[in-house]
Amino acid sequence: MKAIEVENLSYIYPDGTKGLDDINFSVEKGETFSIIGPNGAGKTTLLLAICGIIPAKGTVKIFGEQLTKRNIKELRRNLGFVFQDPDDQLFMPTVYEDIAFGPINLGLSEEEVPQVVKDALLNVGLVDFEKRVSHHLSFGEKKRISLATVLAMRTKILLLDEPTSNLDPRTRREFIKLLQDIKCTKVIVGHDLAMIKELSHRSLLLNEGRKIAEGISSELLKDEKLLKTNGL
């Protein structure tokens, strides 16, 4: 079963620049899929279009159902977006409140929420962090808490924008292992090609909003000429 299907997706920025140009691809349920390309290639724009956050032209299907204005709130419950910069995601005074925000807005009961928060922290290896102040944490801890806020929503598809950016080597290694252990559909945008090769089965290469290539990650990343030509 396909978790995501993108057909003829295009987007033009307000200044007239073409952000996405007739993009087509699909992601299987349970697959880890990556989107690579140089700065300005349209990678993050593509993630935002999949979520319906920007008004792209074309078709996006989530588990076979087309994303429309009518069903966007319901289908978005399947999608969890983890921002590149955790400070864009964390905005509450404490870790508990940051993680609980989503479940509370989904209508979970006061009895359910504490356990959901506890489970999310366990999944990211930060047990007993509930009372910590989010913005006093290290960058790597903030990354984990950002991931926990999405896991607490029980989303079926994770969309991760540059998940290893600005992490030191040990923290990067630990975060990659954490992502490997999370069993759900994942779409990862990144410049860290070693991470992409390790985590993803298939990759899509974008440049200037256009689809350049798609294939098995290990094979695509062997093509040195292709990568150099496209700023990687």
Question: What can be said about this structure in brief?
Answer:
This protein is an alpha/beta fold and 232 residues long. It is built from 9 helices and 10 strands.
Structural description of this entry:
By secondary structure, the chain is an alpha/beta fold. Helix content is 34%, strand content 27%. Strands 6-7-8-3-9-10 form a six-stranded mixed β-sheet, with helices on both faces. Helix 3 packs across helix 4, helix 3 packs parallel to helix 5 and helix 4 crosses helix 5. The chain is globular. It starts with a strand and ends with a helix. The mean pLDDT is 94.
Instruction: Please bin the fraction of helical residues.
Output: 25-40%
Topology order in helix (H) and strand (E) letters: EEEHEEHEHHHEHEHEEHH
**End-to-end CA span:** 32 Å
Task: Please outline the major beta sheet.
Answer: 6 strands, mixed
Radius of gyration: 18 Å
Range of strand content: 25-35%
What is the subunit arrangement here? single chain
The count of DSSP E runs of length 2 or more, i.e. the number of strands, is 10
- Number of helix segments? 9
Which class best fits the helix and strand makeup?
alpha/beta
Query: Average pLDDT, to the nearest integer?
Result: 94
Order of strands in the sheet with most strands: 6-7-8-3-9-10
Taken from the alpha-carbon principal axes, the silhouette is globular
